[in-house]
Design a protein that fits this description.
The protein is an alpha/beta fold and about 350 residues long. The chain contains 11 helices and 12 strands. About 40% of the residues lie in helices and about 20% in strands. Strand 11 and strand 12 form a beta hairpin. The structure holds nicotinamide-adenine-dinucleotide (NAD), 3-isopropylmalic acid and manganese (II) ion.
Length: about 350
Amino acid sequence: MKIAVIPGDGIGVDVTAEAVKVLELLNKKSLLNLQLVHFDYGAEKYLKTGISLPKEQLDDFRSNYAAIFLGALGDPRIPDMTHARDILFGMRFGLDQYVNLRPVKLFDERLCPLKGKTVDDVNFVVFRENTEGLYVGTGGFFKKGTPDEVAIQESVNTYKGVERIIRYAFEYSKARGLTKVTMSDKSNALRYEGDLWQRVYKQVGEEYPSIEKEHWYVDALAMQMIKRPEQFQAIVTNNMFGDIITDIGAQLQGGLGMAASGNINPNGVCMFEPVHGSAPKYAGKNVANPFGAILTAGLMLEHLGFKKQANLVEQAVRQAIKENKTTSDTGGNLGTAEAGSALCKLLETLCTD
Ligand code: NAD
Ligand code: IPM
Ligand code: MN
């Protein structure tokens, strides 16, 4: 199996190196046989050559790779994020990865900022629609640069797009024995997209009689995620709301450095990336937490069918946190590389047990 590895920008480079160490260790232990192929797409290449992500590269990913691993994108030298949008949305949209799967899973209660919450209280999955909504890039300016300027950003919601993400959330939940799927929108204010989401959720939901349905407006959902996170098992929502609530979710797990995500096309090649960005101020400083990226590698393995290996990675992360072998954001005193190596050591022991 070939895996494309794109470290990208900033701390994306630092954390990807650690996720790669983990995958290579599993290769060495003969628990995997992945061929990791590195690509230098990112700010540096874009500034030097003007190339962000060529169309032929997408075709190559589509035909020749089992999955893509991405670190992060974003560089202060490209303030409008052109290269990052080209690369990130190029893959999400171009490879039709319509599910942004973002588990919110607390590994140790010490990491949770909420009083008295345990690992059982923070354990749900967010299904963020990943190809539509406010992200499609339609709209425009009128009278730009004048006092009469108008900027329009349109939210595009198709029946097909809404149906397939809601169905995926129900199917995933059914397959894993989850008993409730929560849908979140803002249908009290956003009439048209809200109406479509409400109708489709009800219609698709009827096909899953054994799964409880629940709805929260997204503002109230944000509040409930803090107040009673234990009520959630699966949350399905649109692209924009999903982006925002998964940063809240990341904090419930110990911060952005702990959160994993997958961009899933159930019938095609998927891309896996931590939820965090390139955190430019920490780039190259050996301080970023690599566990979000490592858990992302775990999520990728699970998706590729390597359930046992994915479990080992999770166990190693849990153990590393328990032993305080972490970076400073999660209470330890290790650097990025040292935390990655410490985790590999724990993983090696788990592999031979
Ligand atoms: P960010 O996630 O890069 O960082 C925000 C803050 O979160 C950091 O300052 C840091 O305190 C903390 N943090 C994030 N990751 C961490 C880690 N691994 N370890 C420890 N702490 C961590 O978000 P931002 O500052 O809003 O964005 C920086 C750049 O990244 C921007 O260009 C943004 O557009 C981009 N971005 C890219 C992605 C992506 O590639 N998928 C995601 C989010 C943001
Ligand atoms: C994320 C990021 C991206 C998004 C940005 C960098 C465009 O915040 O993956 O969560 O909004 O999807
Ligand atoms: Mn985000």
